[in-house]
Amino acid sequence: MLHERAPELSRLTAALSAATPGASTVTVLSGPLGIGRTALLRELPAALPGEDVRVLRANAAPAEQHFAYGVVRQLLDSMLSGASRQDRERWRDQPGPAERLMSGIDDPAAFEPSPEALRPLLADFCGDARLLILLDDLQWSDPASLRWLVRLVKEPGDLRAALVCSLRDGEQGTGHPLVGQLSGSAAQTLRLAPLSLDATRAVIAEHCGPGAHEEYVRACHEAARGNPLFLTSILLSTAVSGPAPTAEQARQVRTVRPAGLRERLASYLRTGPQAVRDTASAVAALGGHGGPGLVPELAGLDEIGYGAARRALCEAGLLADAPEPRFTHPAVREAVESALSVVEREHWHAAAADLLFSSGRPADEVADHMMDVTACGHPWSVMALRAAADDALRGGAPENAACYLRRALLGHRTQDESRAALLVELATAERGFDPEACRRHVVQALPLLTTARDRAAAVLRIPPLLLGAAHSSVPELLSDALDETAPFAGEDAQARETALRLEARMRHCGHENPGELAAATERLRGLGDQPPVGSAAERELLTVLVFSATLVGALPAADAARTAGLVLEREPAVPGGAHTVLPLAVITLFTSESVREVASWLSSAQWPGVPHATDADGVLLFAARAFVLVSQGRPTLAREYVERAMAAADTDWREASMMILTTVALELRDTALSEGILARARRRGATGLALTASLQILQASVDAQRGLRATALERLLACGRQLDHSGWRNSALFPWRSQAVGLYQRLGDDAAALRLAEEELAWATEWGAPAALGRALRLKGRLQGARGIPLLRDAATVLRASQFRLELARTLVLLGRQLGSGAEAEAALREAGAIAAAYGAPWLVEQAEHGLGTARAPKAAHLTRSERKVIAQVNRGLTNQEIADELGVSSRAVEKHLTNSYRKLGISGRHELAGALPA
Fold first, then answer.
1. Is the pLDDT of residue 912 over 80?
2. Is there a contact between 393 and 579 (Cβ–Cβ < 8 Å)?
3. 3 state DSSP class of 539
4. Would you say residue 772 has pLDDT above 90?
């Protein structure tokens, strides 16, 4: 269906009516590639209702340009294909060209018709009707046919003939003298305009049905620039099915590269003149770099030749009419490149790199072209690639830097210190996203380095694999480097810093060895009450030592918090922290309940969007903030940060971040969230005892919520045995006992529950953190029933000194229930309800009110329709993002509906939603 071509159809109808015997009319349709000239010619006869017209058609093509009278043969063939049997027999009886045509003689030399010779045949064909000759792509017509058409137009005889031909802008044949003569005789030239936004909307409705979102329509219009060919190619590539196109699908429109359009454009370019092809190749190779002055130089054209070639590309609709040469659509560049052979592409990129370098362009522009060249023989190639890698690292793009450096290594085969420097630089780039490749390249560099200082610096490029299982070669590398550096540590400040950092890495490699942990604890005690923290190396060592002591519970929580706090005071939350030992200090502070210190440290963090920041930094930031929020009794906000961390790639989930997130999930008791974290861990692959134990505890929590209590208990006990074997006694970090106590009790083994509760209380008393001690007291007090009331009172007293206010509320609710009645019970329940209300915990408010006898029925009837839909999806087991995709809303909207639902239903979170929605 034609859109917005009514004015052209009206003028073409008038031109046909103006054709009289002896006076033919010529009309030219012009415009760029894909503007719709062919479609207009195809639909023109059907748009002439009531007109007595005979139609002849022909389509010229580059491959047939040297076939004499090829267009004339097509015109006559179209006449024969629609003729009746009687007409064909009558024409066969006429002598001359018609007879030879009817006899099927294809020899061009034997078929040289003149307009005079064919005029009787055409007159017989038309009778009293007008003759409409439609010729597509006039510029590709063979010269013999062009001469025939020129003579027919000048001497039509009694024919009332109207010639309508299309002339594509920017084609090589447009300048042919005969084409110019024929188009010059045209009474009018109609240049087809691009489709408007309304016409674009109508085309989309034809392909996808009505109701497309306005943003989708605008995206299609902007991407196609009103070109019908571009528009239909985009619509066929996106292939929207089901409901009408949405706003979200607009992003796909802006990035799609239609294969059919690419092939059509490539076919056009292959038939173009050399200057046009070279200009297009130069624009594609430079990719917007270098400005308009470099394009003609790269194409090897003078000002006049370049101007003509550029004008041809602009007229064809492939090049934007702007000062900076750029293609109108990304598919154009792909078409240019696909029209080149592999050797030709390399030639253009090598020439572009050479030109950009000699013009003083930025290193990354030069390096981008060198990445597409197999062999760079320039003496400056390695230098340019290293400079581009350095810029990429400073700009926060380590993957790009690694690509540049790998390419530089291909051009530097000599096994010398220069190659070692490249390997170390590559390892530096890879340390944030591929630690194993980093280690491998450091190992390759070490034999080429000639000094102990350089070898030690190279080994330190290997990032500490926090809480994970390091490669077996890493401890040996660290030990060898330390042995080489230690003799100089006493006399050289830099050597001392290096030695301290190597020691820190070595000690952390032994964090699963009880003997190494004991040695680390002794080393920490040897540093005294005021350990040195003046240098980065001293702080790195101190962080590893205090974390080791925290794992085994070898010092009180207050001492661990004070020591880790000394580090955090001097280490701001800057980008790159996820790849250092700094997360160990954060975990130590969380374990010792110094949440305010971490919250203060996080308040200055600006990792996302900052140069040098990686996505791993962002995950650590989100995890730490989620822990702070859940500790402060703000579960909804904590869940939001966990969801943001879940949006990151698997490779950005480092062991320390995953440990913090598992702790948050345990506090939230959200089964779907816990399963999401567990699934992520399985995909990534958990290594090391710390993360394995944390995930086992989280899996046990999920099993228990599903009613698999025996399975959960067996999992927890196995985890406890693993932790004990490594000497890891800290239950605040790995709370397996507290969960096992509850499971023993539910399974009816009160003796085993009490034994574990007493072990937990003994450890918590030694550790001394208020929340850990309060929980342990509450755990044992709950087991002892009425005899446990003194323990519950003690727990409440201890928890009043804790920052974990919701732990106090839980304890007061339990105390009030155990007391049953009386002023103390009422006071405990009222205080619990007030704390729970202040910290946004409606489920605890409900429990307190129930104990007071003032509980209100959940306001399920007041749930909105959207809230009910979201709850229904939650009960299907969907995550927030999956619900958002299902309902066509944002994840933030889903979170808002859930938060309102929790408040209205008086529940704590997702795990209590099952069955909450009335039938």
1. no
2. no
3. helix
4. yes
* Cα gap 390→400, rounded to integer Å: 10
Query: For residue 134, which phi and psi values (nearest 5 degrees)?
Result: -110, 120
Residue 44 tokens read as 């023109």
Best-predicted range by mean pLDDT (262-271, 453-462, 484-493): 453-462
Which two structure tokens, joined as six digits, stand for 23?
A: 């006076």
Of 593, 634, 639, which Cα lies nearest the Cα of 732? Answer: 593
**For residue 86, what are its two tokens?**
């009687």
* Gap between the Cα atoms of 449 and 508, Å rounded: 26
Q: Is the dihedral of CA 795, 796, 802, 808 positive or negative?
A: positive
Which are the contacts of 325, defined by CB distance < 8 A and separation ≥ 6? 283, 286, 292, 295, 310, 319
Q: How far is it, in rounded angstroms, from Cα 77 to Cα 896?
A: 70
Q: Which of 620, 613, 535 is nearest to 574 (CA)?
A: 613
Q: What is the pLDDT of residues 719-746, one digit of tens each?
A: 999 999 999 999 999 999 999 999 999 8
Contact 632, 669 (CB under 8 A): no
Element holding 347 (H helix, E strand): helix 342-358
Written as one letter, the residue type at 841 is A
Tokens (6 digits) for 129: 């009707």
Residue 862: its pLDDT value, please? 64
* Beta-bridge partners for 162: 25, 132
Q: How far apart are CA 815 and CA 820, in angstroms?
A: 9
- Under DSSP, the state recorded for 56 is E
Beta bridge partners of 134: 57, 164
CA 192-196-199 angle, 5° bins: 100
- The mean pLDDT of 400-405, rounded to a whole number, is 94
Please state the separation of Cα 697 from the chain's center in Å. Answer: 32
Rama region for 612: left / alpha / beta (φ>0; ψ in -120 to 50; rest): left
Q: Name the 3-class secondary structure at 167.
A: strand
Q: What is the pLDDT of residue 789?
A: 92
Structure-token match 């989280």, residue found: 698
Q: Quickly tell me which residue has 């964090």 as its tokens.
A: 511
Distance (Å, rounded) from C-alpha 77 to C-alpha 670?
76
Q: Are 595 and 803 in contact (CB under 8 A)?
A: yes
- pTM assigned to the model: 0.68
**Alpha-carbon 631 to chain mean position:** 32
Burial (Cβ within 10 Å: 0-12, 13-18, ≥19) of residue 472: exposed
Q: Is the dihedral of CA 553, 566, 799, 665 positive or negative?
A: negative
The residue with tokens 């009694």 is 158
Contact in structure between 34 and 317 (CB atoms under 8 Å): yes
First to last CA, the chain: 51
Do 219 and 204 form a contact (C-beta atoms < 8 A)?
Answer: no
Confidence of residue 101 (pLDDT cuts 50, 70, 90): low
Query: Which structure tokens are listed for 658?
Result: 């995953």
Pairing label, strands 25-31, 53-59:
unpaired
Q: For residue 557, report the phi and psi dihedrals to the nearest 5 degrees.
A: -60, -35
Burial 247-270 (b: 16+ CB within 10 A, else e): eebbeebeebebeebbbbbbebbe
Helix (H) or strand (E) holding 39: helix 37-43
For 81-150, list the strands marked E by DSSP.
Answer: 130-136
Write down the residue that tokens 């749930």 correspond to. 863
Place of tokens 């490699």: 509
In the chain, what are the helix, strand and coil shares in percent, each to the nearest 5? Answer: 65, 5, 30
Residue 611 — pLDDT band, cuts 50, 70, 90?
very low
Instruction: Walk across the sheet containing 130-136 and list its strands.
Output: 53-59, 130-136, 161-168, 25-31, 188-191
Q: HSE, CB side, 13 Å, CA atoms: give it for residue 280.
A: 36
Q: Which residues contact 7 (CB under 8 A, 6 or more apart)?
A: none
pLDDT digits (tens, 9 = 90+) for 813-864: 999 988 888 899 889 998 988 888 887 777 778 888 877 765 444 445 467 8
Cα separation, 96 vs 113, whole angstroms: 8
